[in-house]
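no rush on this but wanted to send it before i forget. what follows is a protein written twice so to speak, once as letters and once as structure tokens for the fold. mainly i need to know what kind of three dimensional shape the backbone takes. thanks a lot i owe you, the record is right below.
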Amino acid sequence: MGTLLSKIGISNVILGFFLFLSGLGFPEEVESLGINYGQVGNNLPPPHEVLNLLQSFKLTKARIYDTNPQVLTAFANSNIELIVTVDNQMLSTLMDPQQALQWVGTHIRPYFPATKITGIAVGNEILTGDDATLMTYLVPAMVSINAALVKLGLDQYIHVSTPNSLAVLEVSYPPSEGSFRSEISEIMPQFLQFLATTKAPFWINAYPYFAYKDDPNSVSLDYVLFNPNSGMIDPSTKLHYDNMLYAQVDAVIFAMAKMGYEGIEVMVSETGWPSKGDPDETGATAENAAIYNRNLLRRQLENEGTPLRPNKRLEIYVFALFNEDMKPGPTSERNYGLLQPDGTMAYNVGLSPLSSSSGSASISLTSNATQVQRGHQSLLFPAFLYLLLFQVFMRRQR
């Protein structure tokens, strides 16, 4: 029975997400979109089922928070590009070049190239933590790991970086005033020089949700959800921003430029919206989560860049694939997933077929705040056909 329910749940996901992508008219892979695959739960599906889900979603990029050999093995010979993570507490050890070489030889080399490991995240949000000593380990550990990759001939395939909280910025608004915190002024030039030398991206964990939660009376919900709104104009650059995420990314770019580093790519290593929260977590609802992720996916399908770099598509990793029931902290921490652990959607993606005045079909992605229509021909019949086939499948399982 458990296996049957799992199959039904996964079938629901595959059907719903396929229709979602088809409704947008983009059945191909979303090259700039990835997903964070966390595993802090006691009821998550095994890695081989997760791989099937990702492939059904036409996603080709994922990030994990360790070097779990079960995941690395399951993802072998697939089209999924994978970023792995070094635990914060390993940094002091991996400063040693020999230890770093041994680590890469044990955790990376045996799986590559069958498993498409493309990045190593050295720690997570180190530069905004409370451990000043750990901060000093970061760049030396990154240098040692990269040297190990060079020695093993893997550096041209795998880059080394570290995800940073947006709190690395002292100022983020307006974007042109972006600057790094004075407390990390000695470490940041070393870090940026490493990224520039190795051509690795600056990874930022950016959550507009937090800005709205902390000040819902001043921060526009439409602005943080990518809904239609008047936005803001940066007084110095005159660039127009219609959403907070792009403004946050550009603030990082300006902060790096102020330190003499203008060519480093910025990638969003985490962003998302919780579908549930505690009473004081304003905005943490399934409706807002659906709107945020739906609008974000639409932007990704259009290969958008930020106002400062409009011709450079912004690579984004959504947080997260699953709700993880063992994560500590407020309720929201356990409710960022697009999916429940059984493979069913955590919230409705909001599909509704409409007929247009021209007679062709269109898909309306609706919420209380916004409604966006994209015209497409002949979508109603394929949608009906898939639904019919799914109903037949369901009856046969009874």
